[in-house]
Design goal:
- The chain contains seven helices and 14 strands.
- The chain has 299 residues and is of the alpha+beta class.
Amino acid sequence: MFNFERFETYIHHGYKTPNQHTEMNEDGIVIANTIYGVIDGATSRNGSKINGMTMGAYITGYIHHGLTNLSLNPQYKDTDVGLLLAGANHAFGEHMKKEHPEVVADGFSFGPTASACFIRIHNDNTYSFAAVGDCSLVELGTEGHWFICPETNKPDEIENNRLTHFADFCQEHNCSFDEAWENEEVQKLYHDAKMLQNNQWPYIDGNPDMANMVFSGRRPLNDIAGLVLMTDGLMLPGFDNIEGSFMAAKQMFNHGVSAYASGVNKLYNDDPNRDKFMRFKHQDDGAAILIQFLPMSNN
């Protein structure tokens, strides 16, 4: 079994405006026996809530609870985390159909959705991994190699078209970003783009088809210096892609997660009017886990 030399976590509650937090922190961290992960619940633009919680916070809490329970079940003590995530997602879908059928009446994509990334350390000196949505896992090797999951970028043209329309609308109507959100045209485009993206890229939403789309597998722990798991809120502005994941992970590994996050926070705070970095809110929620392993000779 590999031992940890360094273990760091970080979680950040985002801001709607420079001086106003978003309603709830919808990111989460899971530490459950040998399972480690981050979850990023998606913000509902129409303000829908379940049991007093935003939909993003609700699904984050449910998946956190579900995976923690599965990690304690002896029947699944060595099950790959990708299978456990698929099970938790399926259970969430059944829960929504039973307890909140009106929320998913038009399909799972219309209800709570989340991105996530998990690993599980196994006794045979391997780790299993699973990722869906915008979250990333980065493996940093002792010999300079690296591995990233997901290994391909999400269909960014959907997001880029949405951002371009948002900026054009603000300029055409001489309004702020927050004022633009109140417009039905903007809301509809956001909604349609989100539905399209959810159909092209795997997300946790209760749809059992997610099990066939999740990025998952097992890798050896030999020659690994460390692992970094992060939500997209901790990537550098404008680098929400594979390159950005690797850049962020290296900075976290070299300087520490909190120090890196402080630098990201400063980038956003130095751009209060969103002139440099186009985005829908001042700063997204963020969460990360860094694991550095002891050298092989010390394990």
